[in-house]
Recover the amino acids of this structure.
């Protein structure tokens, strides 16, 4: 494990680190990211002392390489499991494919990025940011979706290194059944808005509304439209929003 007081982004650091062939589960954590990011370079907000921000490296085997986009679902499930190990009982769900919601508000973001040299996979970087304390949240006018922190939801502060340990432990345990039907079922069970009306949007494309009826064996979202047609959305650059928001 490596630690830096401040870094632009633990994902950027880990992607560069891959050039040195680091072993499985090499991990970089920081207290403060100055340029944390999510998909499409959208910024991820964090604050020193109030956020958990880290990235780790995995070297997917041949089978896992066939389902690479599902690694972020695996990480989301690991975060859910880790948070569930703390009392009290709260509603922990996953906004497809990988945002962790506590009582319906986003508390953790995950960004998995693969690095290739030609057709050779150098490794996969899994970056996780968790809002530990209320000050870790971005200003309300920057939010596209309601956000919360662990402390606000659970009602007491949690040690971020203890949480990090639980997330990694859960990730390693869940990976033993990845990507089996059991793993897919565990993920499906955690998905928010199943059976509800949602809107799916993709940059540069028209939004599609319908009922979120499930995910297929590849993790693609299945949307039943008003006319009865079922559309499939791959994991990637698609956003899901409940129509109640
Ligand atoms: P989507 O908008 O499709 O649900 P996403 O949830 O996967 O996307 P990204 O596209 O990766 O999110 O972009 C980051 C999003 O998270 C931005 O919309 C930003 O407003 C929000 N965000 C940034 N920092 C935080 C934070 N600390 N807590 C909660 N949300 C945050
Ligand atoms: C999302 O918004 O859903 C994804 C956000 C991912 C944030 C984490 S914080 C640690 C790592 N470093 C980054 O720059 N991004 C990820």
């Amino acid at each position: 494990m490596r630690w830096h007081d401040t870094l632009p982004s633990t994902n950027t650091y880990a992607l560069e680190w891959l050039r040195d062939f680091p072993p499985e589960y090499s991990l970089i954590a920081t207290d403060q990211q100055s340029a944390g990011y999510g998909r499409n370079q959208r910024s991820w907000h964090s604050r020193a002392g109030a956020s958990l921000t880290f990235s780790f490296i995995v070297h997917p085997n041949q089978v896992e390489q066939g389902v690479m986009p599902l690694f972020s679902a695996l990480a989301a499930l690991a975060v859910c499991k880790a948070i569930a190990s703390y009392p009290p009982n709260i509603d922990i769900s996953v906004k497809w494919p990988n945002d962790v919601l506590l009582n319906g508000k986003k508390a953790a973001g995950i960004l998995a990025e693969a690095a290739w040299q030609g057709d050779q996979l150098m490794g996969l970087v899994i970056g996780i940011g968790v809002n530990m304390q209320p000050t870790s949240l971005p200003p309300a006018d920057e939010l596209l979706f309601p956000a919360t922190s662990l402390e606000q939801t659970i009602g007491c502060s949690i040690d971020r290194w203890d949480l990090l340990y639980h997330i990694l432990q859960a990730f390693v345990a869940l990976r033993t059944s990845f990507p089996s039907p059991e793993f897919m079922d565990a993920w499906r069970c955690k998905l928010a808005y199943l059976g509800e009306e949602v809107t799916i949007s993709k940059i540069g494309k028209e939004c599609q509304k319908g009922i979120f009826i499930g995910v297929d064996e590849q993790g693609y979202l299945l949307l039943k439209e008003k006319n009865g047609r079922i559309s499939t959305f791959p994991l990637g650059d698609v956003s899901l929003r409940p129509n109640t928001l």
Notes: The chain has six helices and twelve strands. Helices lie at 10-17, 62-65, 71-84, 150-154, 160-175, 181-190. Residues 38-40, 42, 44-45, 99, 106, 109, 131, 136-138, 142-145, 147, 239 surround adenosine-5'-triphosphate (ligand 1) (CB under 6 Å). The radius of gyration is 17 Å.
